[in-house]
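Troubleshooting: if your tokenizer reports a length mismatch, compare against these two reference records.
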Amino acid sequence: MPVKEFDEILLLKKIQGLADEAEEKLIERWLSESEENMRTFTRMKSLWYALKVKGYSEDEALREPIADINARIDRLEAGRRRITGMRWLKIAAVVALLFGIGVVVMEVARFSKGPEMVLVENGINQGIKYIELPDGTKAWLNLGAKLSYPERFDAQERKVEIEGEVFLAVAKIKAKRFLAETPAFTVEVTGTSFNVNTNASGKVEVVLVEGAVNLLDNSGRKAGSLIPGQMAKAGPESDSIEISQVNTGFYTAWKEGLVMLENAGLNEIVKKIEEVYGVEIVIDSLKARKDDTRYNFVFKKSQRFDTVFEMLQFVAPSREMHVKEKSGK
């Protein structure tokens, strides 16, 4: 069915993310009928996105290409009822041509790959970052964490990618599953709260606070599941997922600005303090290596380093240690 026989209002609704499920199916069927239909739609989408760019030029060199694009829009409009959206496209054509044909090509390529992706990063020297996703899911990003998601979730599922440590309180939408992708496995939920922590080596830990989740392997098959109070642990090359019972508070306290270490060795505590305060703690490595003592250690990130260092000296009074700033700090 050519575009002149198709309701372009539906196309504009799809571009703006306003089409309902029935309209989405109708549009997808129309798009699959011919390459010309797809080209028409992607051109409309490209120009609509270009409208978001503020300001435009009346440079003489732009007049001819602008007139050409507007003429094509007029041909599309011929024989059909006139709608406000077509005027938007003419304005957008002016804006798009500020950047040349490359803008249209870029937007068409972006559409062919799926929705535009949003990347949220939290610097290592910033506080906890809080954001809300398009579906209402709440996310807290720890220092150095990254969260990637589409600016608009599709009708079947909600998918995000996680690097570093992120806590998610997933909005409950039963008909639309939520997928959190990590280097080792994918976490599948419909509505729940859980903590995901990945590191540079690809090791992944998922701690479930409430609800239930499935763990999917790279082929999408179910590899395990969690109930509240359990942690799943695996690496990118792991053949299996290790599941254990844990105190969830120790894995989610960072969201409230707390650092909690349970049954940790002295080296683990020192490493965490170094990470938070950007210092280097020099300790008698020989003695520390021989020490198998385990500790529970808790401190607030808002506390002065001097106070936390005194706490460390209190729990390990026999250790000789001193502090120096890391280079570049």
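Reference record two:
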Amino acid sequence: MAEYRRSIVVKETQPASDGDYTHLLPTDPVSFLVLHLKALNAGSNTKATLAQLLSAIEKVLISYKGDTVIDINGADLYVLNCVLFGKEMLQENVVDEDNAVRGLPLIIPFGKTLYNPAEAFPATAKGDLTITLTLDIADTGYDTLKYQIDAVTLPGASPSSRLKIYTIKHTPSSTGETDIDLPRGNKVLGYLLRSYTIPAGTSTTCTIGKTKLLADNKETYIVSIDFDGLHQELARLTGAANAWAEKKHRENTAASYTQNADTATEEQYFSDVANYGLIDFGIGVSEDFILDTAGFRDLKLRIDAGDTNEIRVIAIERLPV
């Protein structure tokens, strides 16, 4: 009979200062980790936004004998969770009370599906597999940061593959055509893309404009797509946008005060997945389409940049073990 084991591997910790915090991970095969984030609201009649809480996690780095397994920040990890699992990681105690305890769990996956003995990080020697968190313990909206890490292991499992997830940052030198070189050699399930600028107000500017994927200077998979199309691909997997959105109501206060006045229709004005798009080769599409980069001499994204702000590409690869 197969068995999984869930355990707390790093008990609740309150870091004393900003910086890096490194911990050893289990030696049994690991399906996934859960990073539990806690913080206090900092300010009367306000609450930390989801974006503010996620900004506390400046980097999650998982290493095996010094080699990168996962390299991602908190905001990107949150969106990756939404894409892989189609569900928001629920916040707890979302109230606008000063010093209210806020909570948010984030899954750090080693397989596309959880609890899968065929895809997990394999057994290791003690000390070979580590996690390093780069944390900002207090900033706008929150303070008194704490974290805990749980692990789900699969004793006796012999996985044949595991994920590698890492971040590529690119800042265009000018508007217009810019190339982002992509690593080669592994099979790719998808690329998660973040555009710093997206349409807002009356502006239609996007940092990520028209995009194509080139392998050995030939168009492959993505011949031409703009940010709207990339975002649609992500939205196809994440579900209704309002689950990830901030909302507001408006009331006309110019007239004399009216008790119990009705507010205007609810508006969605911000979504924590709004800046993201997806190129999908095997997350929500058949794995027959997985991009195998082993034979390419060159692989790049060619993007028509609308401004010179940062573009992030989060590569989601599958490696044999």
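Descriptive notes for reference record two:
- Residues 74-85 form the longest helix (12 residues).
- The mean pLDDT is 92.
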